[in-house]
Amino acid sequence: MHQPPDGPAFDIVLILHVGCVVAGLATVATSGVLAARLRRLLSDSAPLPELVVRYFRPGVNWAGRSVYGIPLFGFLLLALSHGAYSLRDGWVTAGLGIFVCMVLVTEGMLWPAERRLQSSLLTLSAGAPPEDSLRDARVVSLSATVAIVLLLVGSVLMVAQP
CA-CA distance, 66 to 72, in Å (whole number)? Predict the structure, then answer.
């Protein structure tokens, strides 16, 4: 049995690792909540508030990509643990699997739908029908929910280390 890892380098990397989880949760949750709000507004044919329009302006959701720091700092934590943790630990392997599933959801559904939503909101202001926007808002809110659940399950797994 190895000693639990400690030291300033391990602590700093752990803070960065957890920071990426928190940033990922916050940005994915924001996307999901604002997409659900947009869906309600479009269904009611209500005017769109500035906050919603500004959030869904065209561009890459770089803050959401902070989730890629999770495995990066996770592998650094493994290296800094001096053998206390390894890829052979079931909870590490399961966490990596959960991360892969979360990336498949975000890169395969959430962010493409978010980009389509950004484009359709530009044409929506020109009087285009909102059907595509409604569909994409639904996809963003549902896939964000799945990604949040995966991030939370992975977080609980990393804390519990069964």
Answer: 10
Model confidence over 22-33: pLDDT tens digits?
999 999 999 999
Domain-by-domain residue ranges, the chain?
8-160
Distance set, CA 28 to CA 21, 107, 118, 130, 140 (Å):
10, 12, 16, 23, 9
Summarize pLDDT for 66-76 with one digit per residue, the tens.
Answer: 999 999 999 99
N- to C-terminal Cα separation, the chain: 15
Give pTM, 2 decimals.
0.89
CB-CB neighbours of 16 under 10 Å: 15
For the four alpha carbons of 39, 42, 47 and 53, in that order, the dihedral sign comes to positive
